[in-house]
Amino acid sequence: MTQFRIAQISDTHLSRQKNQFVGNFEVAAERIATQRPDLVVHSGDIAVEATQRPDDLAFANELMAGLVAPYRAIAGNHDIGDNPGDGGYMPKKPVNDDFIAGYEALFGPSQWQIDAAGWCILGLNAELFLSGLAGEASQERWLDETLSQSGGKPVAIFCHKPLFLAQVEEPADVPYRYVPMAPRRKLAEMMAKADVRLFACGHVHQSRDHVVDGIRHVWGPATAFTLPDAVQPRVGTKRCGMVEYVFTHDGVTVETVFPDAMVQHDYDAVRAAYA
Ligand SMILES: [Fe+2]
Ligand SMILES: [Fe+2]
Fold first, then answer.
1. Which PANTHER family match (predicted)?
2. CA nearest 50: which of 73, 75, 29, 25?
3. How many Å apart are CA 90 and CA 96, to the nearest integer?
């Protein structure tokens, strides 16, 4: 295959019961039906809140099964609980093995690798960082081995959380937003041993596309909703959308798209989903 096209959707926040964001998922699904990518990557926060309502993930799985393209998913904090952060931060719903098992039963392994168009494309579970779960150490071993064995191929990594705001070493910002400092440093060291060209994420509900030390960092927009500036300071573009990638032997092109039909929900809709 000379080119491999991926559509990235993120932060769909789906639920049968709290269904206000289903319409925007359907807009993404229609675009996928038109564009016919080789693969859809869901970069996490598939559910509104699966740690309290497991049916959110079952419902999301039914919707994802209706996509015309095959898909791979990675888990977000609203799917399996969150990881501890810098400065002793502990989330209200910490990740645990039961949540991960429930997620994996529907969406497959937390980590995955796809080789296509000369690229090595990887999915990482961001919620394992600093969790102390057995999966944290095994993911680290897997990633180290996989990157060491990538044989000079260009590598793309999909991970729910961004690696950083601007650079690896920076003052601690929002403790639950980025990969925490200790695993971030390890990840950066491992990445430096391979030809990593792309680090793609979701989670922030703001889109950004910037290059740091030769690696393109793409923050996919949420399909579901954005947050007002008074609740979440603006660091990127606050608009619902998705990302389209074309991987070839020459590189990758990235386009963030904002379909007009996606509704820009107000904060009341978000509050109602999380009430
Ligand atoms: Fe999210
Ligand atoms: Fe998230």
1. METALLOPHOSPHOESTERASE, CALCINEURIN SUPERFAMILY, SERINE_THREONINE-PROTEIN PHOSPHATASE CPPED1
2. 75
3. 13
Q: Which domains does the chain have, with CATH numbers?
A: 3-273 (3.60.21.10)
- Tens-place pLDDT, residues 133-142: 999 999 999 9
Q: What tens digit of pLDDT does each residue of 102-136 get?
A: 999 999 999 999 999 999 999 999 999 999 999 99
Specify whether the backbone of 189 is left (phi greater than 0), alpha (psi in -120 to 50) or beta. Answer: alpha
Residue count of the chain, please give it: 275
CA of 223 to the centre of ligand 2 (A): 12
Residues measured by CB to lie within 5 Å of ligand 2, the ion: 45, 76-77, 203
> In 3-state terms, what secondary structure has residue 53?
coil
Instruction: Single out the residue of 22, 33, 31 nearest to residue 60, CA to CA.
Output: 22
C-alpha to C-alpha distance for 266 and 275, rounded to whole angstroms: 15
Which ligand number lies closest to the CA of residue 225?
1
Inter-residue contact 188 to 163 (CB < 8 Å):
yes
Distance 51 CA to ligand 1 centre (A): 14
Q: Let me know the angle formed at the C-alpha of 21 by 228 and 103, rounded to the nearest 5 degrees.
A: 110
Q: Helix (H, G, I), strand (E, B), or coil: what is residue 76?
A: coil
